Amino acid sequence: MQNFQTATPENDIAWMDDMEFARQMLAGINPTRIQCLQEFPPKGKHSVSTIKASDIENNLDGLSLIQAMEQWRIFILDHHDYLMPFVSRINANGVCAYASRTLLFLRSNATLKPLVIELSLPGFSRRTTSSRVFLPASQGTGAALWQFAKAHVTANDSAHHQLVSHWLHTHAVVEPFIIASRRQLSVMHPIHRLLHPHFKDTMHINALARNLLINAGGILEQTLFTGEISMELSSELYKEWRFNEQALPADLLKRRLALQNPAHPSGVELLFPDYPYGADGLEIWQAIKTWVTDFCTVFYKDDDSVRYDMEIQAWWSEIRNIGHGDKAHEQWWFNMTTISELVETLTTLIWIASALHASVNYGQHAYAGYPPNRPVQCQRFIPRERTPLFAEFLRDPDKFYVDMLPGRFQMTLGIALTEVLSRHTSDEVYLGCRPLNWTDNKEVKQKFKKFNDALQEIEKKIVQRNRNPELKNRCGPAKLPYKFLYPGTSNNRARGGLGAEGIPNSISL
Length: 509
Known about the structure:
Elements: H1 18-27, E1 35-36, H2 53-56, H3 65-70, E2 74-79, H4 84-91, E3 99-106, E4 112-122, E5 129-134, H5 140-184, H6 190-195, H7 202-212, H8 219-223, H9 230-238, H10 248-254, E6 258-260, E7 268-270, H11 276-299, H12 303-307, H13 310-323, H14 339-361, H15 364-368, H16 388-395, H17 397-404, H18 408-421, E8 423-424, H19 442-467, E9 497-498
Helix pairs in contact: 5-9, 5-13, 5-14, 11-14, 11-19, 16-17
């Protein structure tokens, strides 16, 4: 396995390229996990990382570690703390899993350069860990070991994507909003009419998921390295969930991928503009928020009109106290007494059901449909020197890597799943599109036309960005342009199928 970092647009090994490995954290199917590192070395709940300054300080393009930290140029993909309590149980079932930390450096051209990977296993006591550190290499055994380390990181990220970013943060958390809307808002209520297209087919698809995907012995348990503890892990991470942090600007600020800037329409400015998910997402977010604001101001003239809307208050109470009842006493919930709180809530909800879900779902076949690029589990630990396993690795590194990947059945099942999930339904309706007779209010129709026009302008910007060679994260070595947040508004017709472009209104698959 030689020259892993020399992938070119003409070859078929772009997935081995370090730049592509890093780019997928910004423009792949799980672009919401990476964050700017706040302290070095990284600290967990029970331990401090074993990564040393000497591991990375010679790879910071002339900057010192202190300078790089002060300039917010070191990033982390962290799959350590939440996994460590589960690793022993996971590995007892025959897979070989680590908890991982990956550090990356933001270069002057806005690409990310992997610096180091730390892979950890539980130690002999509950609060100790056994960690190994891997550094980038382009030749020899070092290059092969580095590639193995990246595979383990990607397996971590694959499980987090399916169980948290996809299932938990879109499908699952939206359900209480749908149920409360059906129970508390009359079909004539304006907010019911606003939200109705964003709930299309979600309860049905979630029911199917519970029967086939996330059930005991289901497809995710058969494919992901987390196996039978998959839903337990997802439930554990629900404890960290906050609805207000699913607003895109808040999420970017939390991960330090953006700074507050009141001069920008969304109130935030990206830390660097070549973050495809962030750049496209903020424009979609702002278009949704403008539409929701315009809509609400037609029906709500002041804050009292929200405060004394009994249906809205009953709706919000059910969401807080029943739907997300185990979080009822959290202080971050909106009081729902102002128009601005209603607008922020509705914008966040529509964002989750449409754009956020599209960004983490419809690109699965493009990236995870080729298992070496995105393995869902590893069947071998990385060998240590002076062991029989290391001798086996030295005899044939390529075979060792292939043997480390999931078995044929699991890979075939995983590929089939990504193909099904990446298809748009034949009756899909896209963001900014509705039936002609959805309302007879002329002012609302004018506001909706404004929303539609804004989305079509965003489409043009996305096409331009993807053609801009200066924006290296838009396509990367794999030459896959970022289109997961392309609205598809200008071509609203049932097109369905694999590879269809557009942001569906709802979580319909």
